Amino acid sequence: MKLPEIDLCLIAPEIIVAAFGFFVLLVDVFFSKRENKAYLGWISLVGIFFAGALAVTQAGSVKSGFEGMFISDGYALFFRITFLIIAFLTVLISMGYTQREGIAFGEYYALILFATLGMMLMAAGTHLVIIFLGLETMSISIYILAGMMREDKRSVEAALKYFLLGAFATGFLLYGIALIYGATGSLYLKDVASYIASKNLLRNPMLLMSLVFLTIGFGFKIASVPFHMWTPDVYEGAPTSITAFMATGVKAAGFSALVRVFFSALPGFRPDWTSIMWLIAVATMTVGNIVAISQSNIKRMLAYSSIAHAGYILVAFVAGNDLGVSGILFYLMAYAFMNIGAFTCVILLGKKGEENTLIRDYAGIGFKYPLLSAAMTIFLLSMAGIPPLGGFMAKFYVFSAAVKEKFYWLAILGVLNSAVSVYYYLRVTVLMYFREPEREITGLQFSPAAVAALVLAVIGTLYMGIFPSNVLSFAQKSIAGLM
Amino acid sequence: MLIEYLAILIYIAIAIGFALFAVVASHLLGQRKRTALKEAPYECGMTTVGSSFRRIPIKYYIIAMLFLLFDIEVVFLYPWAVVFKQMKSFAFISMAVFIGILLIAYIYIWKKGALEWE
């Protein structure tokens, strides 16, 4: 009997993340008497750091393993690093926040690690079942994390809503995968593509249906219109640190799988998906930005803004050229820094029993907490797309990719949307600096770890804006084998 | 080609037919006496007391769920046992990792007190 070849080095970063997840779980139950769970956060950080270091050592090599189900290529590397950065920052901002809000459970950190593991599998899987399993590992962990504040009705509502709608969307995705298997007899992305090309199945109704179902399944995870309904409620109700994790990590993971599946398995359907995605991209940008204007809660505003950002990234997906796909990677990395940064500011401005998440709570904090406000301003301006910040370069690449492929209307609508978004981002900034505070916000306790995360996020946002070519060339090298 | 599945179709027809027959026949042939207690919702030999929207002990459900989880995992041992002799150490190590992960889960639920009834 021929034994399958197992190359554990290939999944070393994943193994490290999983092992630290289990370790955190066990340490927590054996030392359950300890009230302060921050040390579990530090253990998680060590694990994430090791996994990142191992991932970097694999740079430059392309190796496929596990019977071709898993690949460690540049694309996987870029996303592994993005996910690990996101997990690192999330754990940093969580340590003070969970303690403050009374949700300091050991499982919290273990679940973040398991969710990261799922994301990494999604980016590196070259078999639809692996991608699906990764998605489930990630989603189930996030469902629980969203409901961590068990006493808070909104958090429970967020978890239940996300779980029910997420399970439904997963059903669509699985249906799409099943139809692909039915039509082509394979779940390997490469085999699906070659079978479609050899049998000329481009008008096969089963495959066209599966294309629609995959779009729905992934469209839910990246929060694109019209599959975005859950986003504001879930982002508002979930613990703020988890909202940051969802808005960046889950979105990046959704895009990583979407791009890999569509470009490696279904490249022949490009004309079909281009027209669908064009509409979705425009709808996503427009709905996200316009509804964000009327929000009074900063978490809801950032939720709608994250919908709009998914729309910008879809513009690059529609363009689908080299610059577009590397632009997606660049955008997701830049978005991770600026969005986690913004949510960190939201966390730092709250205290126990007083979350201060209304936008008018930001009035006049500019002079009381100058550094916090300056950081928040940087993140908001970056999201609005103002140079020299990471968000500007990301948008620049995305829109120039669209122009290069002659999607002029898409680029124009994107830029117009971006102009609309400046209004609600700047409104918060104006409130912070040019208005008298409505009431005093006092007694804030800045957790050192969260401040460290804030500094890292500021550095990341500035670095990607001022020296974008380093990250962009990394992204361009990463997509070499994909297209 | 599809004729091979004819047996399944016949089976489905018989199954549905029998279910319909049983329901309809008992409806037509059986005699019914209506009493207030029978008309009450959820009569299971218990009189209903108070609202159902209140906290209930969920110990039973936790144990039932955990039982299901670990019970299903055992299913993997059967195909494993069949090929064990051919795959030798590879099979052993794979299963050791699998059981090891299950063991971590078991230790976790034990220490969390999910198995304590009181």
Strand order of the largest sheet of chain A: 1-2
Poorly predicted regions of chain B are none
First and last CA, distance of chain A? 36 Å
Task: Give average pLDDT of chain A, whole number.
Answer: 92
Outline of the structure:
The complex is a heterodimer of chains A (483) and B (118). By secondary structure, chain A is mainly α. Chain A is built from 19 helices and two strands.
List the helices and strands and how they pair.
The complex is a heterodimer of chains A (483) and B (118).
Chain A: H1 12-30, H2 38-57, E1 63-65, E2 70-72, H3 74-101, H4 106-124, H5 128-146, H6 153-184, H7 189-199, H8 205-221, H9 230-237, H10 240-265, H11 270-293, H12 298-319, H13 322-348, H14 365-368, H15 370-384, H16 390-404, H17 408-434, H18 448-466, H19 468-478
Antiparallel strand pairs in A: 1-2
Helix pairs in contact in A: 1-2, 1-4, 2-3, 2-4, 3-4, 3-10, 3-13, 3-18, 3-19, 4-5, 4-10, 5-6, 5-10, 6-8, 6-9, 8-10, 9-10, 9-12, 10-12, 10-13, 11-12, 11-17, 12-13, 12-16, 12-17, 13-15, 13-16, 13-18, 13-19, 15-17, 15-18, 16-17, 16-18, 18-19
Chain B: H1 6-29, H2 36-39, H3 59-75, H4 77-112
Helix pairs in contact in B: 3-4
